[in-house]
Write a structure and sequence with these properties.
The protein is mainly alpha-helical. Helices cover 46% and strands 3% of the residues.
Length: 897
């Protein structure tokens, strides 16, 4: 636990931060008001831009120090200590003249806090510097903020309810609960626990057999065995890879405008992430490869080993932001390139630092201690790889993957195929010549010579007279295509010869590429601070450096040029600092995000913002313990999964307690499990799995999407003719692959997933939102994907359970919900099937008018069944088809409890 002094310091720091405590006016009753702790944060947010940091002081007034406010500007002193009514600053604030209307307004509480500070004598906490240097841009109060403190392992607290403690995690959480007179909820039941764990680790529901086996296993380590099995599943890498792809802003298109150019090789980065997570690659290595994998491979990037290809592929992390450089108008190009770099900085900073670094692009950060100059020093770390002045378009950054041996093999195969083409052409010419001579014999002798000359002349070089002559004697105008069409046997010989060359060419190694971020060796472009963030107004040049609040230059050495490698080495040095175990934020940010994916809410509820505008940690000691343990023990994610999932915190039921709800209505203290709705991919994949259609094929190019005639984005191959849809092209089961493999285009996300809140990637997703809106219910009733899967679920249930309605009800529940239904549930389902069957029976046409196959009634939420499924014409099967939709629409399916 924190020592008493440390806890007191933490409370002071929380109160001093903008948005909480005194700085927001909430602490207005506090007796002592100090400039550094209480007033400067307000001035920094609302005043410094005009009165301190912009180079030109408006009215000559600088408010960055108390003594400068006393000194005042052209209108005299801004404050009169002890006399707020006579202080010009207070007057202007109270009258609403400052800040100007276009600036954020101060709250009445903030204004009165400033007035009270003046009334108390405008006190400072310590002597102020004679001049403001870069070192004085960050105050001691800002340096003491909790997130910037060195990471240290916290002592596991002692608790009264030790019998509920399974892991150190439980002790930290229970200690907080016991402070409020609370304790853990009882453990949940086994079917619920295995469903929770299976969705958590694989994104899929457990099979009925897996649930049955776990319920029957009474051994003490039964749940641990379940976790181990799930972590070994290939489905684990797909699920947890998806979480990281959100943070990276993964997309299969460039974004920027409606053109939204496809990124044909972005999928290699997606596969790299899934494989790395599945293999439990240490997360420090995972980070280093994504930030600087190219600096671990010696250029030029040719004849690459598989390991080197993976390192280059990893840098796709820095290529995921929207990039309109290939299609932007020339007039916008400079701004577009600058925005690409800014977006990539946002991805890196929110993913690894948990800071809104981008807010310092145009001016000093209004809330966090990130001066604008620090933003551009941070940018300088990445500048050699982006280099706006020598920009390489996305296509120019592709690295070919063929080895020299593969290229030579391709040339050899092409030479052999060309030889076959030559032989085929010779054969065709001989047949044409023979037929021409045959036809020539029947033509007047005086025309044979001019006809022969016309025939031998290439079409493009024939004179008008020759063309007219051949047209007058069509029998002599021989072409092999016509000759083969008239002779079926000849056509089949031709096809064999064509196929022989085509088959040979099909064995050529295909030309493939990896989309990587690389530097041009020797190219070290300067980085300049941009006046107000305008790339057309460069100011002083800066050198690469970590944000000063996170590490001084004497501690963190980022070279301008590492002489030991061909590239600058800047990103590699930075990546190694991030993963050194000494960085104050990386470990905290990572474990917080992993915790969020397990518990539904991070210990810090704003996973991309650990700054002063972000949420404060509910369990700061636990966060530090997890981060320190994670970084000290190999950065192993699978180990962390087990620590969290074996805890009592994770195993609790979702049962609510009135007394607990009164004290902790938002369950921030984690006294019970919080219900979570399935996310978009979990929903679609679970429907596919329960209907028996899930295609478990892994990796490779994405499953394509297209617009259907109704404006919905669906899975399918685009087949347009004159702008109108052509025949539907077969997908060969690709449409049933997991959602992580479905193409994500920023301009047209899959409508099914978008309805269930899949992220938009602008430029990335720090945390998903879960909504409950009417379009989701409408989709469950009317969406073609859902209707088709309900038919397939009905067929599966009928095949596995037989014709008995009770057996069907049980099996449908098992497949969709993942546990055994109670007797009341079975009776409800049986009655539903009986009522629906009766309705469909009443609508059934008479035998005289009944067609061969009867469509499922649309009013019941089903779809016309194809002729290949005659069983769906039975009213009982139609009823069973609607049952799948009913189950998938239920809270028992849509929520994880």
């Amino acid at each position: 636990m924190l020592r008493a002094g440390a806890l007191q310091t933490l409370i002071v720091l929380l109160l001093a931060s903008p948005g909480v405590g005194a700085a927001s006016g909430k602490g207005a009753a506090r007796a002592d008001v100090l400039f550094e702790r209480d007033i400067r944060p307000i001035f920094k947010t609302h005043c410094f831009h005009c009165h301190g940091e912009d180079g030109q002081l408006k009215a000559g007034l600088d408010l960055r120090l108390q003594r400068l406010a006393l000194q005042g500007g052209k209108h005299g002193s801004a404050i009169v200590p002890g006399k707020p009514a006579e202080s010009l600053l207070v007057q202007k604030l109270r009258e609403g003249e400052m800040p100007p209307e276009e600036k954020p307004r101060l709250t009445p509480q903030q204004i009165e806090l400033i007035a009270r500070w003046v009334e108390q004598g405008a006190r400072v906490a310590r002597p102020e510097p004679q001049a403001i240097s870069e070192d004085h841009l960050i105050t001691d109060e800002e340096r003491n903020y909790w997130a910037f403190q060195p990471l240290v392992a916290r002592q596991v607290p002692a608790v009264r309810g030790v019998y509920r403690v399974r892991t150190p995690i439980d002790a930290f959480v229970l200690a907080k609960l016991e402070e409020k007179g609370l304790t853990f909820s009882p453990d949940t039941d086994r079917p619920t626990l295995i469903r929770r764990a299976t969705f958590d680790l694989t994104g899929l529901p457990p099979t009925p057999a897996e649930v049955k086996a776990f319920v029957a296993d009474t051994s003490a380590d039964a749940f641990e065995h379940v976790i181990d099995r799930l972590l070994a599943s290939p489905r684990y890498g797909e699920r947890w890879g998806r979480h990281w792809l959100d943070v990276a802003g993964y997309a299969d298109s460039d974004g920027y405008n409606e053109v939204d150019t496809e990124r044909k090789f972005a999928w290699r980065y997606r596969d790299y992430v899934i494989k790395s997570i599945q293999a439990d690659m240490p997360f420090d290595q995972f980070i280093v490869e994504q930030l600087a994998g190219d600096e671990l491979v010696k250029p030029p990037y040719e004849d690459l080993s598989p390991a080197d290809v993976e390192k280059l592929t990893a840098t796709g992390f820095l290529r995921m932001a929207p990039d309109g450089s290939a299609v932007a108008p020339a007039a916008d190009k400079k701004a577009v390139l600058n925005q690409v770099i800014a977006d990539e900085i946002k991805v890196v900073s929110t993913a690894l630092l948990g800071l809104t670094v981008g807010c310092a692009q145009c001016h000093d950060h209004r809330y966090d201690p990130i001066p604008q100059v620090d933003y551009f020093r941070f940018r300088a770390i990445f500048e050699p790889a982006y280099d706006a002045k020598s920009w390489r378009l996305p296509q120019q950054r592709l690295i070919p993957l063929l080895s020299d041996a593969d290229r030579q093999r391709g040339k050899d195969i092409e030479a052999q195929a060309a030889k076959l083409d030559s032989e085929r052409k010779k054969w065709e010419d001989e047949l044409v010549e023979a037929e021409f001579q045959k036809q020539l014999a029947s033509i007047a002798e005086n025309l044979r010579e001019p006809l022969t000359k016309a025939f031998k002349t290439p079409v493009a070089k024939r004179t008008a007279a020759q063309t007219k002559l051949l047209k007058a004697h069509p029998n002599a105008n021989i072409e092999f295509g016509n000759l083969a069409s008239a002779n079926g046997k000849l056509r089949d010989e031709q096809k064999k010869r064509l196929d022989a060359a085509a088959d040979l060419r099909a064995t050529k190694p295909s030309e493939e590429f990896v989309a990587a971020l690389t530097e041009v060796p020797g190219n070290l472009p300067p980085t300049h601070v941009f006046n107000r963030g305008d790339c057309d107004q460069p100011k002083q040049a800066v050198t690469p450096a970590e944000l000063r609040i996170l590490g001084s230059p004497s501690v963190v050495a980022i070279p301008e040029k590492d002489k030991t490698i061909p590239t600058s080495g800047r990103r590699l040095a930075y990546a190694r600092w991030l993963t050194s175990g000494k960085h104050p934020l990386v470990g905290r940010v990572l474990v917080n995000r992993f915790w969020m994916h397990h518990l539904g809410r991070g210990i810090v509820a704003s996973p991309g913002d650990f700054g002063t505008l972000g949420e404060r940690p509910t369990h700061p000691e636990l966060l530090d313990w997890l981060a320190a343990d994670f970084t000290a023990n190999g950065w192993q994610l699978k180990r962390l999964h087990k620590q969290i999932m074996l805890s009592t915190v994770y195993r609790q039921s979702a049962r609510h307690d009135a007394a607990q709800d009164a004290i902790d209505p938002d369950n921030k203290l984690l006294g019970h499990w919080s219900l979570r709705r399935l996310d978009a991919e979990q929903f679609r994949d679970a429907v596919l799995m329960s209907s028996g259609k899930l295609n478990e094929k892994m990796f490779g190019p994405p499953v394509p999407v297209m617009n259907d005639p109704f404006g919905q984005v669906v899975i399918g191959k685009e087949n347009l003719s004159a702008g109108r849809p052509g025949p539907v092209l077969p997908m060969n089961g690709e449409d049933f692959r997991r959602s992580v493999y479905v193409q994500f285009r920023r301009s047209r996300p899959l409508s099914l997933l978008a309805t269930f809140d899949s992220p938009s990637m602008e430029p990335n997703c720090e945390a998903r939102k879960a909504s409950t809106v009417a379009p989701q219910s409408l989709l469950l009733m009317n969406n073609e994907f859902v209707i088709d899967r309900s038919v397939e679920l009905a067929e599966r249930v009928r095949a596995e359970a037989g014709p008995d309605a009770v057996a069907q009800a049980k099996r449908a529940w098992q497949l969709a919900i993942g546990n055994e239904p109670g007797d009341a549930d079975v009776e409800d389902l049986r009655r539903y099937l009986a009522e629906q069957t009766a309705r469909f029976e009443a609508r059934k046409p008479s035998a005289r008018t009944q067609p061969a196959t009867q469509p499922v009634a649309k009013a019941a939420g089903a779809k016309t069944a194809p002729a290949t499924k005659p069983s769906m014409s039975e009213p009982s099967m139609q009823a069973l088809g609607t049952l799948g939709q009913a189950l998938w629409s239920s809270n028992a399916f849509l929520y994880i409890d």
